[in-house]
Design a protein that fits this description.
Largest sheet: 5 strands, antiparallel
CATH class: Mainly Beta
Strand content: 25-35%
Distance between the termini: 63 Å
Structural class: mainly beta
CATH superfamily: SH3 Domains
């Protein structure tokens, strides 16, 4: 009867790295335009799963802008305004926390934050 594989043999057959140089990653790193591709370290659009590394991926949820609002660069009224949003514009939301929704706004799919209460169901 042949011996049963333990799942450990392949790990033990490789030499153990001894320095950081043995873990070095090389080659070009190309990130999509963050103005039109929603990704952060903690969350990214599932469509970007093969392009960017994030802790989690999500499919955007369709919303609409209910009242005139500003699309902000950060979740703060003091941050830069990316552009103004008008009622009826589409908003594809990836995250909604602490009163701010993050995702794509309008047909041009600009990435930014908008106050959650400015959105309604699509």
């Amino acid at each position: 009867m042949p011996p049963r594989p333990t799942g450990r043999s392949s790990a033990r057959s490789r030499p153990t790295p001894t320095s950081a140089e043995e873990f070095a990653l090389t080659g070009p790193s190309v990130h999509p335009d963050p103005d039109h591709h929603a990704y952060r370290k903690d969350l990214a659009d599932v469509a970007l799963a093969g392009l960017v590394i994030a802790s989690h991926y999500a499919a955007p949820l369709g919303k609409k802008v209910a009242v005139a609002a500003a699309l902000q660069a950060q979740p703060s009224d003091e941050s830069d305004v990316v552009r103004e949003l008008v009622p009826g514009e589409p908003f594809l939301m990836l995250d909604d926390s602490v009163g701010w929704a993050w995702g794509y706004a309008g047909k041009d799919r600009r990435v930014g934050y908008v106050r959650s209460d400015a959105l309604t169901a699509a």
